[in-house]
Structure formats: structure tokens, C-alpha cells
Amino acid sequence: MCRFPRLLPIVVLLIAVVQGDAIAGVEGRKVISLDGTWEIAQGTMDQAPTLFTHRVQVPGLADMAIPAFSDVGKKESEKHRQAFWYRRVFKVDGPLPAVARLKIHKARYGTRVFLNGKLVGDHLPCFTPAVLDVREHLKGDGQQNELLVRVGAWREAVSRSIPDGWDFEKIRYIPGIYDSVELILSGAPYVENIQTVPDLEKKAVRVVATIRNPGQPVETKVACRVSEAAGGKAVGAAESAAVQFEAGKKQTVDVTVPIDGCRLWSPEDPFLYRVEVSTGADTLAVRFGMRSFAFDPKTKQAVLNGKPYPLRGTNVCIYRFFEDPTRGDRPWREEWVRRLHKVFRNMHWNSARYCIGFPPEKWYDIADEEGLLIQDEFPIWYLDKWPAELKSDQLVKEYTEWMRERWNHPCVVIWDAQNETKTTETGAAIQAVRGLDLSNRPWDNGWSPPQSPTDVYEAHPYAMYSDGGPKGKPTTFRLRDFANKPGAPGVPGGLGGGPLPNQGNNPTIINEYGWLWLNRDGTPTTLTKRNYDAMLGPDATVEQRRELYTRLLAAKTEFWRCRRQVAGVLHFCGLGYSRPDGQTSDHFLDIEKLTLEPKFAKYVRDAFAPVGLMVDYWAEEFPAEKKCKVSVVVINDLDKPWEGTVKLSVVRGQQVQSYPLPCKVDPIGSQTLTFEIEVPAEAGAYQLVAELPGTDGQPVQSLRDVAVPAAKK
To answer: Domain-by-domain residue ranges, the chain?
Structure first.
């Protein structure tokens, strides 16, 4: 069932719709979805409005209200309002059970909840779920309940001691309840949280359940049942010994369940299981995948399910997309989000960084199902401007809520504490919470030191960086500068990846590197106009800019991948905004149809092919000889050998000289072929084109522009 309904007429009566934490068919738990159309009004932080004359979709954002409010998400909106107040009226049929909790998956900025006129509680974090006990104020037996949720109208509604998602590129910070809302009803003791810990060697899953008992003391066994998520076939069961649950206390129960016919999860085979944990009074079910992930501190490579696994991917800047003028309700439409992930997979990407912010939880479900490894980045980006009020103890609270929400998703393989920020606070928080994840996923600490030899070093080697200031000049970098450069950024003699060198020699992920962004209409962004003016001139056409951008991006991708010195190469970015005053952008021409710019889809897709290649020739001219040698590097990201014919051609219009060579590449290996070619006698512009048959039946190419200079007079 889609968790993101389109805007509908206001719904007053809700019937036990099963969603969220629970899965249909489990006993002892009823989950009532409060998604749908709510009433909304603007006002102050302290006083609820008396009239609600607008409607809005939940989940969604306050700028989706009908009629619309003015200046939503802009600082100047403070003259209109301090807060938005959401209102929903609903009924619960039958008597109330022992436990009733309200879960607001994500809302910003600063959440305060009232039920039937009574204050339930506050939840200040903007990116993690609020779970509040509402049993005392909830009415059952078909009586009417009034729920009010207040959120601040601007990011400064929360203090500087709370992460607020500051982003140097954003101009709007749009508030709202931007993820699902649920009322969770159960008996006691109830299952508060489940952490699944796959054990691939034993073909079993360790199930660690936190169980809370708000009622009378009780002794019971905890039962665990595992089934296939698609189809429900039972594959394993186990139960604990009898456990004494004391009144008002919580307890951890640890059960290991062997799995018959254990099938591993990977992007190539995203197979999912479901585990149900039952106390007799409550049952919670979650999905999981049997997979392991780590970085090898010796080889510096990613390891998925015990095998080396090169990461190829992109970035999603969902909070930037929130302010995109074409956004609409797309982030909450399941079919659109699924198509987006399919587009990513079609680009040969097996991974993505959800960059500087978390999308709605449904995105993680879809990544699980479509097979995409996620580097999950907490929305912190301060560079060297860390707010003194924000301390590690607050981060520990929010990181804990974040991890508990995500640790059953097989797609989430890297906890990313921050982006491009220099601080000691995130490192201290990582050390405090690392042990909570019993799967011991690696961490990324942005531009602060990695906290473990198995953590990842984040590199952003923007070779064509321009400072963009009034006197800023575009870089003089050219592709020829890649010749003889080491394939790892942040090392001596290499291209810089950030202000912090990789002193610990940690495994490296390049998750930004392109520069040269173009808006969706082909115009340069504010950061790249000087680059294009310098390289192509101010009168360059859209097609000239797109050709230059995508060809250079493909060549850079090939360089970082084929040097085989980094664990992952993630392009920036797969989804962002497109604004005339923006700094970055994505590559879509039609955001509803998710149509990619054709040159990007051609050149960059080839550069990310699992069996890929690179013309390792970076000079801009051929040598003044009749023959020359050209190297072509072939890489194989598959876990099986690849064998085929690689062809190198010298092309000018219809004039083609081709040189084929046989090639065999070991699993996760590389091979360098040396072609001896005839240098064309006629002066002019030529292309070196290397080609091999792709694993999907389409040819994969690498291209270089090389000139034969005119004879000197």
C-alpha cells in the first residue's frame, strides 16, 4: 500500500489501516495511519489558531497548502508567522488497549503535539522520528479525537544547539510534517524496537528486540518468526526462554533464528525477509536482508557479502529538491520515487549517497527493493563555521534515533555523520554511538578525521574548482593534467580531495568530483559560468556546453574508477534543484518523466559500466611520429571473469582506423592493453574511441579528442 497518498478531501474518520512499523496480519498490534489531508493554519509558537481554513497533504510540506500561504520557507516569512499548526480529527473504534503511541516519522522545525487539548510532548530534532505516549489523552469507543501538531515556520525556530539542516546552497527551508504519521496501538509488554543482525556464515539472523512493559509484571516467552517478504513462505522460527518483564521497565531479548535456504541480499539480487517478534500482547514485524558490508583496511576496498564490491553511484540532495520549483508532491509519490531509483540502476549505479539530508522512509524501502546501497548522510554541513552551541551530546541523541530507525534496511551500508565540516563534535558522537549498531557498519566523518581504520575517507576532488568570487578566475585545469597523477585523492602528488589529507590511509570514497554543473535548461550555474566562458566563450550553445560537460565528466569517472585506488566513485548529483540562481543541478530534462539529458545518459552511463574501459591517453596532440602506442585500461567489477574483444579506433568523420585486441579480465580485476596505431598524416581533429561489448548487450565506449597539428612552416 502506498504510504504517500495524493491530496484528497479531508478525512475525519480513520479505520485501522496497517502501515509503517507493523505489517498486515500480525497479532496484538494495530497501526492507524494518519496520513492524508490535514487542516493547517499559521500562527505563533505559543497559541494555537482558532480557525483552520487551509488544507495540506501529510506527508508533505507546508508550501503544498490549499489555498497557498505566502513566502513559505523564506526568512522573510517570519513577518507573517512563527509557526504552522496542523490539525486532524479522527476516531478509534472499540476500547483502547494498554499502549497507544503516536509516531511522527519526520517533521520540522521543532515539533509540539497536543491531543484533545492536552500537551503530549515536544520533539525538537528535525530529521528523526518523534514517538510520544498518547494513551492518557486518547479516546476510544468511536469518540472524536483532535490532534494538533505545531512546527516552526523557519529553521531558526529551533535553537543553534539543534541541527537545523543549514546548507550553503539553499534559499528556502520549508517546514512541515514531511513523513508519515501513525497511531500505534498494542497490548503490554510491547516491542519497542528490533535490530536484525545477519550472520552469513551461520545462515541465521540474530534478532535483538527492545521490549517495554508499562503494565503489571508478567512472564512470557518472546517468539521470532522469519518468512520471505515477497510471498510469506516461512523459513525459520525460534523463541526465547521465559522472560520476567518488570512493571515500567524495558528489557533486551536476544534470539538467533536459522534461515532455511538462506539467500543473500545484494543490488544484483535484492532479496528481502521479514521477521515478526511477538510477546503475545504485541507483535512487531520488520523487513531485513541477509547481507554484510565493510571496508577492508588492507585492500582499501568495499566488501559486500565477503567479496570485493566496487561502488559506482550518485547523490540525492532531497532537501535541495524540496525547494525545486518542479517538486510538487513527487517525493511522496511511491511510483515516482521507484522510477527514480530504476533510472539510477539503469545508469549502472549500485549505490547512492542521500546527501545532507534524509528523504521520507519510503525511499529506504524502495532502495531495499530495487537494490541500491545507501550512504546515509546526516544533514550537517558547516565547513569551518561550526555553531559553538551544538555539542556532541545532542548529536548522540539524534544519531541514536537515526540509527534505530534505519538499521534493519539492507540498503543502508554507511552511516555518514556530516558533510565537508571540520569539527571534533561529530567524531566524539560517532565513538559514543558506534557500538549501538551490532552489524558494525562503517562511518564517514566528512572533512574531519575518520574514527576507525575501517571507516571511510570522504574525498571531493573538484579539479575544475573556481571560487566564484567577483575576482574569481576559472581554473586552468585540463584533462592532460590527469597524466601520471595517482588514482587516489588526498595523497602526495594527487589531486586534492578536501582540506584534510588521508593521514590514516583509510579506504576512500569519492562522492563528489564533477564541477561544471549545468541547469536543466543547459545554462551554467552561478559556480560554473566563468569556466564555460573561459573554455567555450560566452556565446557557446547549450549543446556545446552539454557535450563538454558530459565528456569531461565521463573522462574523470573513468580515471578514478580505472586507477583502482578508491573504494567508490559517486557522481554529484543524481537529484537536486535547478534554479537560475543555483550553484549545482542534476541532469534531468523532464522531472516528471525522469528523462535524462541524452549526452549524459550516453557518455556517463558508459563510464560507469561494470565492465568498463578508459583510453589512458591524456595528451591533446598526437606525437610527431608515424606510429604511437596508446594504452587502454579495462576493468571488471563483476565477481566472474570477463572475456571479449576490445577495439581501439582512430576516427575523423567517416575515416576510421580500427585495431582489435582480445582481452580477459579476472573478477574485480583490471587489464591494460597496448595498441600500436598509425598516426594520421593529415592535420586536424580526431577521436580515439575504445569500445567493448557491454554486459547488457550495448557497446561501452571511452573517447578522447586528439589533434594532429599542422606542419610548422
So the answer is: 29-186, 190-288, 307-607, 611-708
Residue 249: CA count within 13 A, CB half-sphere: 9
- DSSP annotation of 330 reads G
Nearest 10 degrees: Cα torsion 459, 462, 467, 473: 150
Among candidate residues 553, 544, 602, the one with its CA nearest the CA of residue 573: 553
Q: Is the preceding omega at residue 109 within 30 degrees of 0, hence cis?
A: yes
Cell readout for 235 is: 523459513
Burial 105-116 (b: 16+ CB within 10 A, else e): bbbbbbbbbbbb
Residues 190-288, CATH architecture: Sandwich (2.60)
Element (H, E) at 532: helix 529-536
| Average pLDDT of every residue of the chain | 93
Q: How far apart are CA 447 and CA 429, in angstroms?
A: 15
Residue-wise pLDDT for 154-208, tens only, equals: 999 999 999 999 999 999 999 999 999 999 999 999 999 999 999 999 999 999 9
C-alpha cell at 94: 472499540
In angstroms, rounded to a whole number, what is the distance separating the alpha carbons of residues 151 and 167? 20
Residues 616-625 as b/e (b if ≥16 CB within 10 A, e otherwise) read bbbeeebeee
Phi, psi of 423 (to 5 degrees): -165, 160
d(CA 219, CA 380): 44
Q: HSE-up of 496 (CA within 13 Å, CB side)? A: 9
CA dist., res. 172 & res. 153, Å (int): 11
Contact between 438 and 319 under an 8 Å Cβ cutoff? The reply is: no
Q: What is the average pLDDT across 53-58?
A: 98
What tens digit of pLDDT does each residue of 119-149 get? 999 999 999 999 999 999 999 999 999 999 9
Which letter does DSSP use for residue 73 in this model? T
Percent of the chain with pLDDT over 70: 94
pLDDT single digits (tens) 470-487: 556 667 778 898 888 888
Pick the CATH number of 307-607 from 3.40.50.150, 3.40.50.10860, 3.40.50.11590, 3.20.20.80: 3.20.20.80
408: cell is 534493519
Backbone torsion region of residue 26, taken as left when φ is above 0, otherwise alpha when ψ lies between -120 and 50, otherwise beta: beta
Query: In whole angstroms, how large is the CA radius of gyration of the chain?
Result: 27
Residue 481 DSSP class: G
Burial tier of 491 (Cβ tally within 10 Å: 0-12, 13-18, 19+): middle
